[in-house]
From TrEMBL:
Protein family: Belongs to the AB hydrolase superfamily. Lipase family.
Keyword Secreted: yes
Principal EC category: hydrolase
PANTHER family per UniProt: LIPASE, PANCREATIC LIPASE-RELATED PROTEIN 3
GO molecular function terms attached to this record: lipoprotein lipase activity; metal ion binding
Catalyzed reactions per annotation: a triacylglycerol + H2O = a diacylglycerol + a fatty acid + H(+)
One Gene Ontology cellular component annotation held by this UniProt entry: extracellular region
The name this protein goes by in its record: Triacylglycerol lipase
Top-level taxonomic group: Eukaryota
Annotated source species: Athene cunicularia (Burrowing owl)
Active-site residues, as the UniProt record annotates them: S171 (nucleophile), D194 (charge relay system), H289 (charge relay system)
GO biological process terms held by the UniProt record: lipid catabolic process
Length: 462
């Protein structure tokens, strides 16, 4: 996928015409804001739905690991399938260079069905997503129209409620969901998983995912970046709740997998001279971009391990300015974000959190106070080891260097063990090689404040 992104950034795309019309879906123009506006200067028109071979595959508890291909054009396929109007329906929509027939889209449906009795529909538009990035950007307008048409067909056949529908889209799939929501107002929820940035950042709301596209829009940003570092995702808020795990740009565990690459970034346009200039930038992609749907996947099983803290910047979050959660509580990033009572309080609410480097990525933020006892001063480092009820352990450094007796050391930790499963906390002191053999240092007490509710626990470390 990353290789295809590289190719895409060298291709500028061309304007195919002023308008194209397709049966059932209507007409598509390249007039502003679809083209000729900042950020979308040279986009064109979408290909036909037939050319893209769009399919909808239904997964239910009755189908097991298999699926049933259903079609709004041949609506009898829906009526003869295991689709149930009594159940909620989730549509999963992939992005550029991907597919809906295998991989994360299918895995997402199967996991959702383990925890909820729903209709899960995998939307495949692989043939429309495998050309240049610019052509895929154009094509999502038709994919969004097809999803909207499918939903209208459900309304017609079953009198199906829009309040039962949840659209989940990754990258270009997030904006596809937004296009569907723009066309059919009243959808319950849209989740944007790192909505694509190039050709969408800073564009008008009609073009991209926007809070008006559904009753509730939540967004996970995992590969957003400012120039001269360009991410594959959007940096700006584009929902009711926007989550920025690890700051939203570079994800832990990805650093060694995808190196930074110097690439040609599209172009810079001078309206006065009407000239196009090549611009170089650093693209960070691949693994970071995919983390958004991996986080969502794991959040289904570990909802409390993805708590987002309201903050203006990641720097403020890191320094503890936004800890613990306010009185209204904190939302959970991912699948359970809609449980947050204040989710519709306003649009563009920013939330920050840190994740672990490896699955299930979940962490629980805690503020730790350690008061030392023993000799007055010595060099070394002090760590805490968290033990859970299943025998797993995680070690975290609290302080290092010159350590003083009776001083209280404070540290914000993103612990990979659920506080509810914490069996004990062990205090470790590692002294330097030059420390006197008989010197001893211990922890008089350890206080821990939990971020979720501000609850204080006192521990006597072992």
């Amino acid at each position: 996928v990353v290789g295809m992104w590289i190719l895409a950034f060298y291709v500028l795309g061309t304007v195919a015409g002023k308008e194209v019309c397709y049966p059932r879906l209507g007409c598509f123009t390249d007039d502003p804001p679809w083209s000729g506006v900042p950020g979308r200067l040279l986009t064109g028109l979408p290909e036909s739905p037939e050319h893209m071979n769009i399919t909808f595959s239904l997964y239910t508890r009755e189908t097991g690991n298999n699926s049933q291909v259903i079609s709004a054009i041949n609506s009898s396929t829906i009526q003869k399938s295991h689709f149930s109007s009594r159940r909620n329906t989730s549509f999963i929509i992939h992005g550029f260079g991907s597919t809906g027939k295998k991989g994360w889209v299918v895995e997402m449906c199967l996991l959702l069905l383990e925890v909820e009795n729903i209709n899960c529909i995998a939307v495949d538009w692989q043939q429309g997503a495998n050309g240049t990035y610019v052509s895929a950007v154009n094509n999502i307008r038709v994919i969004g129209a097809e999803v909207a048409y499918f939903i209208k067909t459900l309304q017609k056949i079953f009198r199906y409620s829009l309040h039962k529908i949840h659209l989940i889209g990754h990258s270009l799939g997030a904006h596809t969901a937004g296009e569907a929501g723009r066309r059919i107002q009243g959808i319950r929820r849209i989740t944007g998983l790192d909505p694509a940035g190039p050709y969408f950042e800073g564009t008008p709301p009609e073009v991209r995912l926007d809070p008006s596209d559904a009753d509730f829009v939540d967004v996970i940003h995992s590969n957003a970046a400012h120039f001269p570092a360009i991410g594959l995702g959007m940096y700006n808020t584009t929902g009711h709740l926007d989550f920025y795990p690890n700051g939203g740009t570079v994800m832990p565990g990805c650093a060694d997998l995808i190196p930074e690459m110097k690439l040609i970034l599209l172009f810079s346009f001078n309206p006065a001279t009407r000239t196009v200039k090549t611009v170089y930038a650093t693209i960070i992609g691949g693994c970071h971009h995919s983390r958004s749907h991996e986080f969502y996947f794991e959040s289904i099983l570990y909802p409390t391990g993805y708590l987002g803290y309201p903050c203006e910047t990641y720097k403020s979050f890191e320094s503890g300015d936004c800890f613990p959660c306010p009185q209204e509580g904190c939302p959970m990033m991912g699948h359970h974000a809609d449980r947050f009572s204040a989710k519709l309080k306003r649009v563009n609410q920013k939330y920050f959190l840190n994740t672990a480097a490896d699955p299930p990525f979940a962490t629980w933020r805690q503020k730790v106070f350690v008061k030392l006892s023993g000799v007055k001063k010595m060099k070394g480092d002090i760590n805490l080891v968290f033990h859970d009820t299943e025998g797993k352990t995680k070690e975290y450094e609290i302080a290092s260097g010159v350590l003083s007796q009776d001083q209280v050391y404070t540290k914000y930790l993103d612990v990979e063990i659920n506080p509810k499963n914490t069996k004990k906390i062990e205090f470790l002191w590692n002294k330097t090689i030059f420390t006197l053999l008989w010197a001893r240092l211990g922890a008089e007490n350890v206080h821990i404040i939990h971020g979720e509710d501000g609850h204080l626990n006192n521990y006597k470390p072992r």
